[in-house]
Amino acid sequence: MDVTAAWLTFRLAAATTLLLAAVGLPLAWWLAAPHGRGAGLRGFVEAVCTLPLVLPPTVAGFFLLVATAPQSIVGRLWAGLTGGTLPFTFSGILLAAVLMNLPYAIGPFTAAFATLDRRLVEASWCLGESRAATILRVVLPACWPGIVTGLVMTFAHVVGEFGVVLMVGGNIPGITRTLSVALYDDVQALDHASAARTATVLVAVALVALVTVQRLARRPVARGSGR
Amino acid sequence: MSQSRQRLVAAFTVRHRSGTTIDGHVETGGGVVVLYGPSGCGKTTVLRALAGLDRPATGRIAFDGEPWFDAAQGIDLPPQARDVGMLGQELALFPWLDVAGNVGYALRRLPAAERAKRVTEALRRFDLDSLARRMPATLSGGQQQRVALARALVRRPRLLLLDEPLSALDAPLRARLRPGLRRWLVETGLPVVLVTHDHTEALALGDAIIVMEEGRVLQTGSVAEVFSRPADARVARIVGTESILCGEVIAVEAGLATVDVAGVRLTAVAPPDGSGLVHVCLRAEEVVLLRHADGGLSARNRFPATVLFVVPEGPLVRVGLDAGFELTALVTRAAAEELALLPGERVLAAVKVPAVHLVAR
Q: In chain B, which residue's Cα lies nearest the Cα of A225?
């Protein structure tokens, strides 16, 4: 197994999960808001966030490649900010992974926030807790299974990301060659022993993730039982 | 803490997205003020506006002279800054915290020792000592309610707001908890605003009452005053005066009015504003039923009636009557049996003069 690829894959998955926690949690909070203005906009944003679920990764990868090309708006902006380019770099596949994995994070986050009993939040406010403290003391305890599910699903899915990484990142050892790309290489090179080891690791990661998520889902989160 | 220093003065209008508006008029310097009216009349909205959870479109809410909300000045304190104890219809206990954790929730900033002392005090006061380590889901409805009350009061709020505090409980439990709740509310010494649609609850818990319908305040006064002297027919219907009849004052003599109701003459205390068409309000509890004319009865108003229906209601029996107009009487089971009340039977209905309440139309 390609240890460099394994380390890169781990870094990519961890960074993507962190970024999606930072971006996804506030976004999901907004999407799950119970009423009020912007219902139409919310529906559209939710659809865009779900798009990667139904789009073939090669299609998404192609658009990302074009959109982040050095002459593109995003490419020029990125060059202005960092001096570098996005395609065929770690930053490029990180951006691709964040976008492609939006639904795996946003979905469980939004579901958790939508089932949150808002009366618990209001009760906390009326008990004198600030909005920020209420998020820590009420929203997180009530929603953590959904939040952890989103993070675990994201991590597991990034580990197995293939098409979009290959399209945007190519196959550069130590920079964009993830485990699934390495696996593809092994098979191309007829090194089935190495391929089998890599594949086994990927299956194990996926299984551990799913078992974790299932356990969380089965956990009886007492919600709104205090009538 | 003198009573005058805890004065809530609120007059505001909340505009809902649907376009309906709800007027809130609450003034209290202490005691339990009941916001009373049918479901959906806007009582809860008024309470939420007082708590700072809903923002009124216009008006002003002030406590101790300190503005909590003032549309003109752009003041709108968040719930955290108003220092109210709010008990929603759903008690909203935190399901992941045990009883002690729930009760101590608002005391995070206190030193641990002080916090523990306050929680222990509150638990003892609401008979929750033995339940301190129990989770809310394992408690009965009455216990949950005590936890919610303790949680709201432990931080010593300035104003207590309760939304249908007993509605989540079943009827026997409600009846059992009512006196205790009243005692706790009085003991707090805080001004209390309590929302209910149940007239027994209003009578049992309230000192003053604000009657609301469709977002408007219809009448404000002491509970006894509003229930026995509804300002108009709408209030009478809402507060549960069982029979509201149309009549005409045909004579006034020595402060007593003779009213014609569908051909039956009734005597009542004359309304101050004179004569003409009136609503006649008769509470079912005030209607006495007799089998035969009895010379020993003081009630001046007696008229024959036919029994239309007899409906048992706990220890009482609700009797529907036709006396040329429809009328309801509430009598004990024993009385109903003694009188052999059956549909179609003829009886004599009697009402004392002071129990006939006239509302000018």
A: B137
Contact call for residues B266 and B258 (beta carbons, < 8 A): yes
Sole residue written with tokens 């209290």? B28
Contact B273, B313 (CB under 8 A): no
For residue B202, the SS3 value is helix
Does residue A224 lie within any of the structural domains?
Answer: no
Tell me the backbone φ, ψ of residue B30, rounded to 5 degrees: 150, 170
d(C-alpha B321, C-alpha B313), whole Å: 16
Q: Do B79 and A130 touch (CB under 8 A)?
A: no
Contact residues on chain A for B94, CB-CB shorter than 8 A? 120, 123, 138, 141, 226
- DSSP state, residue A84: S
Q: Give tens-digit pLDDT for B270-281.
A: 876 666 888 788
Q: Which residue has the higher pLDDT, A122 or B227?
A: A122
Q: Give the long-range contacts of residues B216-223, CB within 8 A, separation 24 or more.
A: B216/B23, B217/B23, B217/B24, B217/B25, B218/B37, B220/B25, B223/B34
For residues A16-26, give the mean pLDDT: 95
Q: Check: CATH 3.40.50.300 for B3-236?
A: yes
> What ipTM score was computed for the predicted complex, to two decimals?
0.74
Q: Which amino acid is at A9?
A: T
Shortest Cα–Cα distance, B307 to chain A (Å):
43
Which residue of chain B comes nearest to A133, CA vs CA? B108
Single-letter code of the amino acid located at A204: A
Average pLDDT score over chain B: 87
| Phi and psi, residue B240, nearest 5° | 95, 15
Q: Write the CATH number for A178.
A: 1.10.3720.10
CA B118 to chain centroid: 32
Residue A221 has pLDDT above 70, yes or no: no
SS3 category, B348: strand
Which residue among B90, B96, B135 places its CB closest to the CB of A141? B96
